[in-house]
Amino acid sequence: MTKRINPFENAEKQFDAAAKILNLNPNQIAMVKTPRRITEANLPVRMDDGSIKIFKAFRVQHSIARGPAKGGIRFHQDVSLDEVKALSFWMTFKCAVVGIPMGGGKGGVVVDPRKLSTSELERLARRYFADLFDLFGPDKDVPAPDVNTNPQIMAWMLDTYCMHKRAYEPAVITGKPLEIGGSEGRGIATAQGMVFCVKRWAKHHNESLEGKSVAIQGFGNAGSNAALLLKKEGCKIVAISDVSGAFINEKEGIDPEHAVKYVSENGSLAGYESTKMANKMDDPMKLLELDVDILIPAALENQITEDNVNNIKARVIAECANGPCTFEADKVLDEKGIFIIPDILCNAGGVTVSYLEWVQNRMGYYWTEERVFEDLKRIMDSAFDKVIETSKKHNVNMRIAAFIVAIERVTKAAELRGLYA
Ligand code: GLU
């Protein structure tokens, strides 16, 4: 029986392991670890049938030490305050590890958006932003998409903000459609950042990505683009999955373009086996246990735990999701010699291009995708090198190393500002 893992407790354990190596004192730990501001709201929204439904919503601003709070808004039926706290906590250290001048925040609404009509979804998105309006601003807190939210939802939220402000301020939210101030490259940025990391891993190990086998859990923005980009790098995508199940074709590999087209026509991967392009796996969790070179968890937290970690066979785990491995599982992965590219580094491409979007919004001048990815590559490569160097220096895994780099930066910023005064 799987025990329920509290994601915030898991995040705290990761922090504590790094803080110990850094010799942080209890004051520093309390200052850097504790979420700065937590907001909870019950949002009334009119449904299409005239009834009113109440949705529980959160925004946690974990840290504002290095800049405005930054992080997405998640719409999911399992959202909880502890999850949003953990996600905002990871955002703080994610922004710090790649060195972008932002803090950490995260929002969430307890809702299964698949059960809402488009107009109900719009009313919920607008109500969220109107209710929590005072929290947000280009220099205060800058949200973005996360699980089940997308550029259209960002557009509604931006419009709600601008209506209240009586001014157009696109830098209040990122991940917007291109037509209203979004950035080139933001749509695939999370996956592109992961690819830069995986290529860097290969370079450090004198290998190439050509012919490497890949399994991907999750086929949303991060997972589907990860499949498309890694295929272009010469990898073989042997398995993919989403909420409807996992699909495998070890022999020929799965054609991600075909799968993406299938999802856009059918709403999910449900029934994908009928195309004869892949077989459905009996147990979708077994995707994680495939004997592949690269395993990409790109769905939710707590997927690799004490329950299944002994069966993990991949050589590298590239975490596109936030928090997919528990602290206890990490220890076993270390013993097995599996290389982890941790979430706060691996999926930081999304927030990095969000930052570049925010910069472009504030200049009112827009870059080409080439320019955006040139910056993204430079930022990701240098963060990867810094983390691997730290991991060698302290003889710790990449996750603890990433936290060491990030915690040092956040602590330094908080102390310079005297945030505790
Ligand atoms: N939701 C994404 C993440 O977890 C992106 C956040 C952002 O762009 O602010 O990193």
What does it look like?
This protein has helices at residues 7-22, 26-33, 81-98, 118-131, 151-165, 189-204, 221-232, 256-266, 327-335, 343-346, 348-363, 369-394, 398-417; strands at residues 37-46, 52-63, 69-76, 104-110, 141-145, 213-217, 236-242, 245-248, 279-280, 294-297, 316-318, 339-341. It has two domains: 35-177, 3-Layer(aba) Sandwich (Rossmann fold); 189-346, 3-Layer(aba) Sandwich (Rossmann fold). The protein has a seven-stranded mixed beta sheet, sandwiched between helices. It has a five-stranded mixed beta sheet with strand order 1-2-4-3-5. The model has no long low-confidence stretch (mean pLDDT 97). The termini are far apart. The chain is globular, with a radius of gyration of 20 Å. It is α/β, with parallel strands linked by helices. The longest helix is centred in the C-terminal third of the chain and has 26 residues, at 369-394. The protein binds glutamic acid. Glutamic acid is lined by residues 70-72, 144, 146, 174-175, 322, 347, 350-351, 354.
Question: What are the key terms here?
Answer:
421 residues; alpha/beta; Rossmann fold; 2 domains; seven-stranded mixed β-sheet; five-stranded mixed β-sheet; 17% strand; globular; binds glutamic acid
